[in-house]
Structure formats: structure tokens, C-alpha cells
Fold each of these.
Amino acid sequence: MEKILEEVLNSNRKYTNYGQVAGYIPELKKAKRDDLGICVIDKDNNIYKAGNWDTKFTIQSVSKIVVLAMALMDNDWQYVFSKVGKEPSGDPFNSIMKLETNDTKKPSNPMINAGAIVTTSLIKGASLEEKEERMLKFFRKLAKNDNLGINYDVYKSEKMTGDRNRAMAYLLRNDGFIQGDVEELLDLYFKQCSIEVDTLDLARIGVNLASYGVDIETGERIIDEKVSRIVKTFMVTCGMYDASGEFAIKVGIPAKSGVGGGILASVPNTMGIGVYGPALDKKGNSIAGIKILEELSQKLELNIF
Ligand SMILES: NC(=O)CC[C@H](N)C(=O)O
């Protein structure tokens, strides 16, 4: 398997020359565009790695699936979906437009920034500190990595420049989709996006989702089974933003991307995959990452459809 991963990386290395490393969060510009890595963990807990599999990057929007799982386990689902929708938006991840033009003004889904700000607001905790602690604990458990932590340079960079998210959050509060202190909520959102991971962490979260929320090593249930299904369904319909349809056709695997350059893919009952390549297309998805997943899906016949 490692040989296959090496081959797939090498045949797609050329794509690291296309696209751009994210620049709207200044700190992200420091990523090296030719870094490329992958990790696969199968359901028997075999771990396969290639390339820059252990390069650290921030999880960014991949965090949205973990926080959605948490929000659904912390709250009544009906309540959650009264605050955030279930439909693809067809707009970029940071679009504000439908918060005005949607009939209900409700954010379309939890995979775009507006919807993710809502799910973050649904994390339970008596104080900001407690919410942050619970959130980190959940990420660490799912990734089986007690060393997961926040990259404070990226966090500060996002906080300084996150006015679009700030604008969305104030609109969301005005329309009754979130409550309380907006700055505190954004603090938590920026922190969740700034959690530092490598492809092994993404693959581990992916395989735990692939096994319907049961830790494949210990047998412990981490995510409610139905919640794990909802999360993977959102990954298929909205995980690659307004490129989710094309990705579903070409790759056919539930996946979630982030502007840090990571993609987490979860093949039900089979494996979790983490890929990293920081140069992004215009929609904010890793170009080489998508190409790698496309080839791997064909080679290993992973298409779930
Ligand atoms: N697509 C992403 O990864 C976006 C996450 C980023 N932290 C933002 O809010 O803009």
C-alpha cells in the first residue's frame, strides 16, 4: 500500500504548481506550496504514510465536521437544525449573500462559515474556557492525539483579519441564529480553525467516522452512530463547498477540505485518509489533494456510489 501511495503522490506532484496558498489569513502564506503528504488508516488499524505526511498545518474548515458532531451530541437535533440548514448553498464558503436572500435567513448548512459559526455556538460549556477545553478534548480523542493544540500565530492572524466572519456573526445574532457575545464565539471559532494537525490526525478522525463513530482500536464509542452518518452525509453534499458535486462524481468519497491545505476523507467501513497540499483552487480546495484522492479512489475502488 505504501508503494501505491508513493506512486499516487509522485504522479500528482505536478499539480502543486497550480493554484495559490491561502493568503487572506496572512499567517497561512508561510506554507510551502510543494509540500505533499498522505496518510491512510484502514479499519484494521494498519497505517500507511507517504511524502510530507507529518508536516503540520492548521485544520481550518475540516474542523467543521468535528464541531458539527459535537453540536449534534450536545443538543436536540431539531434545535440544531432550526438554527442551521441541511442544503448545499452553491456559494463560496465565506459567502454572506444567502444570509440576506434566503427566506428564513438561516445559514444553508454547517460546512460554510456562517453555518459553522452557528454550530460552534452550540457547543455546551459554562464559560469560554470550558467550551474550549471540551472542544480540544473531543478533537484529541477523535484524532487519538493528546498533543493536538492551537497554533496561536494562525489564531491571532485570523482574529486580526476575520472581519468577514465577524460581519456574518453579527448578522446571525441580529436574526436570532446565535446568542451572546459575538467576539467570544468568534474566539472559539478561530481557535477551532487553528488547531494544528498532520495527515495522520486527519486519517485517524476519518477512520473513526468510517467506523460509524467507534474507535477502531479500543472499541469505544466516540460519536453517536446516527450523528456519524449525518456528518458523512454533509461531507458528501457540502464538504468541498461549491465543488462538492464535481468531487462526488470524480472521487465518490465523503470528504472535507480546509484552506490550510488539508482534506479529510472517510470511506465508510473501509478507511480514513488525510491528504495535505497547501496550494488551493479558487474554491478553497487543495488542487493536488483532490487529484490524489481521485487517483486513489480509482486505484483502490473506493467510490461509494
Ligand atoms: N475554508 C476554510 O477552511 C475557512 C476557514 C477559515 N478559518 C475561515 O473562517 O475563513
Note: The chain has a mean pLDDT of 96.
Amino acid sequence: MAGLFAEPGQARQRWTVRQGRELLLLEHRLFQAAFSRQGAQLLHFQPRGQRPWLWCAGHWPQGAAIRGGVPICWPWFGRHPSESGWPSHGWARLSEEWQLLACDWGEQGVQLLWQLELCDWTLHLEAELGETLALRLVTRHQDSEPCQLSHALHAYWRISDVSRVALLGLDGASGHDLLTRADCRQEGELRIEDGCHRIFRHTGVLQLQDLPWQRRLAIDTRGGANSVVWHPGSRPLTEVGWNESLGFLCVEAASCGPDSLCLAPGEEGVLTLRASLAR
Ligand SMILES: O=P(O)(O)OC[C@H]1O[C@@H](O)[C@H](O)[C@@H](O)[C@@H]1O
């Protein structure tokens, strides 16, 4: 996101266009942040005096999802359960139809409300940015029948080097390892050797410890059913260089797989993700 905030005297909130995407830039006394309208995706968040908390790829392919920040996976996570041609992780992160309904400034931060209406569905993303970061995704539908939903806030956390960080708070948690296709149980801290894709049936306040950067982020995945940890390891990612991919680890809040939701008419599906600097 280098250069986005470089112009002196700019407004504290403004729209700009980068790589064909409409971006909302926020310049608050406590932080800088950027959202793309596509996907209502928080791409950048940096409290003053700190390193950025979120990683984002330098190149954003046209007509595809932006890899980085906090993509919203919705209304399904991963592959669609029955439609093999439908896009991975759903439509929300591809849509440019998101509307910004509110952006309220205060001394302690900014509260934003984004909305996407799609067929019978209404999706809201509530964001509270200040010294900490909080995202809340709320799904409603108007169908007369129950609807299936899986979703994730697929955050790409920026780190010094994926081989040098540890994720704490999952000791004893069980889940499913999608790389080995076997159930798994975490013992002690989680370190990434060559890739990771585990869906834990556990949520909590996880600590992403980054010793080279002397930083520990507390990532709160409570509010969903799962914590997901993903890194591609040596598997190449389209248009992301090898060195670039060492700089993130995805730690996500989700409800997916066997923990997907079945929303009765009028029922809301809610997912939250919060982060703060651990003291
Ligand atoms: O590559 P995408 O569609 O942005 O999703 C990110 C990753 O999400 C994970 O859940 C998938 O298992 C990976 O295969 C995928 O690469």
C-alpha cells in the first residue's frame, strides 16, 4: 500500500482508484486504513507508530479477488458444495456492488457500515477501527425456506517471516487438516513448516507471536465456530512472488464445513473477528 497516503494536506477520508479498484482511504489520528469497494475488503490497517497489521499482494488481477487484507468469504467457504464452476469462497469478495452506508468519525476511531444486497440476501459488514480492529459480518435472508451458509473473515496478517512466527492459543484444539485430509489435534504452539491448512473446531483469543518484529497480535476468532489457519507453503500463488508470500499468515474466523449454518427465515448469521496488540 506504499504511496497511498503520501500526499500532504489530503482529506482525512477520500476515495481514489488503484489498479482499477475504488479505494476508500482513512487517515485518523490513531491509524491509517484502506478499504476496496470490491468485496468491502479492508486492505490496510496500521495504527500510528506501528507496522501494518495486514498483508496485501502488490498486484491485484482484474476480474478476480484481491489477495490480502480481510477478504469476506460468503455465502460459502472454499469450494461450493455442489456447483463446481462457481467461484471459490463465494461472491462477496468479487462484488463491486457494496454500498458504504455509514462512516462515522470520533476521537477514538471510525465506524463503518457496508451493505451488499444479492437476490434474497442482505449482508452487512460493520467495521470499528481505532487502536484495535473489529469486524462483524451479519447475514439476513428473505427466503421462506431455511438457507445454508458458510462464511469466513479470511485475514492475511502481516508478519516478518512465516517460518519465524508462532500461533499460541490452540493447544489441545482439534480440527481437520486439509493438506493431510485427516483429523488433527494441536499440541503446543503452531508453527508453519511447509504450508498449513487446518480448520479448528475451536475459537478464542489466539496470539500471533512475531519475535523478529517484537510484536504479538491478539486475534479473537470467537463469534464463529472455527479458527482457520492457512499458508500455501511452497505452493506458488498466482501473481504473488515467493518472497512476498513469506510475509503473511492467514488466521481466520469462520463457520464452515460441518459447522456451516442453516439460517431459518428471519434468523441472522453473525461472524466476528477482532484484533489488538497484546501487551
Ligand atoms: O486462493 P484463494 O481463492 O484466494 O483462497 C485462498 C486459499 O483459501 C484456502 O481456504 C484454500 O484452501 C486455498 O486453496 C486457497 O488458495
Note: The CA atoms of residues 13 and 132 lie 19 Å apart.
Amino acid sequence: MADNVILVLNAGSSSIKFSAFTVKTQGLTQVMRGQIESLATNPRFLVGHGDKPVQALEDWAAPGTLTHDEAVAQLVAFLQQYRDQFHLVGVGHRVVHGGARHAGPALVDDALLEELAALTPLAPLHQPHNLAPMRALRSRLPDLPQVACFDTAFHRDQPELAQRFALPEAITRRGVRRYGFHGLSYEFIAQALAERDPASATGRVIVAHLGNGASLCAIHNGKSVAGTTGFTAVDGLPMGTRTGVLDPGVILYLLDDLHMNARQIENLLYKESGLLGVSGISSDMRVLLESDAPQARLAVDLFVYRIGREIGSLAAALGGLDALVFTAGIGEHAAFIRAAVCQQAAWLGVRLDEPANATGKARINAQESRVAVWVIPTNEEAMIARHTAHITGLN
Ligand SMILES: Nc1ncnc2c1ncn2[C@@H]1O[C@H](COP(=O)(O)OP(=O)(O)O)[C@@H](O)[C@H]1O
Ligand SMILES: CC(=O)OP(=O)(O)O
Ligand SMILES: [Mg+2]
């Protein structure tokens, strides 16, 4: 007999992640997870079942590059083989921008789709890819409950000062404020840290979500209090292809002196900068870490330097630091970057246990460290499944 299943879709800037969760009276179980990653650089299709690690699908004909739409088509074709095993009872979607109105997940209907589409200019690398599968499913299976889970929701209760730009009130009232992103990841990590290290989880924590999109979040007693991303997910740290923080005067210079238009500037800020722009080689940290080119080293050094400075800023917002957590593609896998970041944060009392870091342990601080340091794999899909089950009354 087929199991009742919640499917989760998570379109990141460089990947499509997906998961299937069975829904039973005893709770949700993640029975499948996977991703089509490195869409624009070197696509790979990885799948894992249950507790098994994800593995590359070897018979998959890997194309040179894939758009998000093409990747979703590949995923739909792959999932066909589970048609008789999975009885779909709900679909949960990661939606990067939820605007000012959404402090929690929402059931998808036409009005919501329209509202979220209007936020596309604030998340051009994500929002269209988050909404397209919702529309396709809604037209084919209109009775299937779909739930939008927002990256911004976890940050909506940040203190007013943390959300505010120094802009006139009339512009602030139009919603021009810091929203913050990667919230589903931070919500998952806050809960996971509470299970592993309850003492730190009630304290002052900085989580470094370092993926193709990268940000830091200051969390106090499980609640987001400040972060590096803002009105859009281009602010904060340099990312795979995004600038991160930039003097707004640069935009005026590009407009007035280099005669660039808004779309050209958008491309520059979102797609041509960050690790790719500085290195001129790749947006992929794996490629840069393996390269001997000085520009690759510069891009990596700038990434680490900016993380170090932003950790200082968030530690100031928190009034100190009890724990530092690394997560997402780079945070989970790049021991070199973790070591370099911990070095930058030594003044806060961070001391790394080098062998623990190099061998992939979960707790990586040295005994004498004043700050607990953890590597916790994120699972945005699990967070989305929990929200989806809850809001649809499935579990
Ligand atoms: N072993 C690794 N070493 C260094 N970087 C890695 C490794 N594995 C993945 N990454 C980095 O993680 C990034 C993807 O992170 P991820 O969180 O999956 O991205 P997305 O932002 O698309 O959700 C890749 O661009 C790559 O640079
Ligand atoms: C908001 C964001 O940058 O997401 P991702 O890291 O998945 O691209
Ligand atoms: Mg991501």
C-alpha cells in the first residue's frame, strides 16, 4: 500500500533540493532526500534514502549546465518511479521572500501566488523558481494542499532597530526594511542546537549559513535578533555570485558615470560578483580551494575576512558570544574555511580543535575555548515538512 507522503521542494540559488516524508500517526519520517546541485557550473543529481548518505545518480546524463526549470523537469521525471509508493498528501515549498505580512507558513492559493510574485524583484535568483512549481502543481492537482514556508518568517520578530534602515519614515512604511533570509535553515539549527547543546542554545549564538547564498544570524535563546541579509539576499557576506554589503554610493556611480541601467546593475550585483567576480574563475568554493591562482585565493580570503568582520558586528548585537555554528554547503564541508573563520574570531575566545575540525566531528572547539563551536548539517526540508504537516493538519 502507498504511504501518505509530503513532498518538499527547495530551490536555492545553485540547486534544487527535494525530500519526501511519510506521514504516520507516530510522526514524519524523511524517506528520501536529494538535490540537483551546481546547476550553472557542473550539475550533479544526488539522492539518499532514509538514513543513507546522498549518492550521485550514476546513470544520469549530466548536462553542461541546467536552468532551474530544466532541473525541476528532471526531478519530476525521476519521481515518476515512486508513483505507486507515494500517495501525495501535501507539498511544502521554500519561498525565499515572504515580505512584511508573513511571520509563519501559509497555504497556497491564487491570491498568495500573486502577492509573492510581486516580491520577485527583491529575490530575483529565487522567487521565480520557488513559485513556478507551485503554479504547475496547482493547475495539474488543484486539490492538493500546498504550503509556502518563508525564509524571512524566522526573522520577523527581530527588534525594531535590527530591522530598520536609517531612511525616512515614508519609505520605511513602504516595507523598505531588513527582512533577513535563510530563516528555515536558522530555525532548524536553533532546534538542532537545543537538542545537542541546551546550555549554548539558550545563550548568544551566531550561525554561519555558508552556501552558494551565505549569511550569518545572531540568535539569542532560540530567537533571531540580527542578521547580515537585509531587504534582499544580496546584502551581507560576499556569496557565490553576489556582492554582499556594498557602499550604496557605488550604485550611483554605476548609474551616473558608467551609464549602467537597473537590469545591468542587478546582473552585476547578483550574478557576476562575489566569489565568481573576485576570482574570475568560479562561484564554487570547491574549485577555488583547489586552485593555485592568486585571484582564487583573494576571493577566499575576502570571503573569510568579511565573515570575521560580520561576526564581530553580530557579537556586538548579542553582547558576547557563547556558540558559533557552521552549516550549509561550505560550512558543513570546508574544514579550511571553518578554521580560517575561527582564527578571525579568536579575539572572542574561539579556539578550534584542529583534528576534530579536519575529521568532520560535530563539536569542533578546543577544551579551553570560551565559545562552543559546532558543525550541524542544515535540513531546511525537514523544517518545511514540519510546517506543512502542522498547517494542513496532517500531523
Ligand atoms: N566539499 C566542499 N568543500 C567546499 N565547498 C563546498 C563543498 N561542498 C559544497 N560546497 C559549496 O557549497 C555550495 C553549495 O551550498 P548549498 O548550501 O547547497 O547551496 P544553495 O545556496 O544552492 O542552497 C557550493 O557552491 C560549493 O561552493
Ligand atoms: C536566500 C539565499 O541566498 O538562498 P540560497 O543560499 O539557497 O541561494
Ligand atoms: Mg540554500
Note: The chain has two domains: 3-158, 198-375.
